[in-house]
Amino acid sequence: MEQQTASALSFDGRFTTDNPLYAKADSIPDHVPPERVFDFDMYFDPSPGGDFATTRLDIRRAGTPRIFWTPHNGGHWVATRGKEIDAIINNAEVFGN
To answer: Number of H helices and number of E strands within the chain?
Structure first.
């Protein structure tokens, strides 16, 4: 199986959507609660100037769960706070594929 890489860049340096690695998931997995789904694409930052720090603050201010699932980039979980990130990193048995 050929491995996808993050090398598909457009002229402005952003990742292109024609690379299957960055495609939106077709559906939400059954084990993902609907209240944990948030439409967020970390490679296409909507904030002015692409300021990721501002985007993260906006996500927190919107009341988004500390851990949410996004359908972007094939679908994946996103942790937004240090405590949750640390728990994920230190629990590979639980959070690993």
So the answer is: 3, 2
Q: Tokens 């985007």 map to which residue? A: 55
Q: CA separation (Å) from 28 to 35, 36, 39, 66? A: 12, 10, 12, 18
Length of the chain: 97
Q: What is the pTM of this model?
A: 0.68
pLDDT tens digits for range 67-85 = 888 898 888 888 988 999 9
Take residue 87 and report the two structure tokens written for it: 């728990």
Q: Which two tokens stand for residue 80?
A: 């937004």
- The one-character DSSP state at 72 is G
Residues 53, 20: Cα–Cα separation, whole Å: 26
* Residue 65, number of CB atoms within 10 A of its CB: 16
User: Which amino acid does the sequence have at 37?
Assistant: V
Q: Which range has the top average pLDDT, 20-29, 45-54, 61-70? A: 61-70
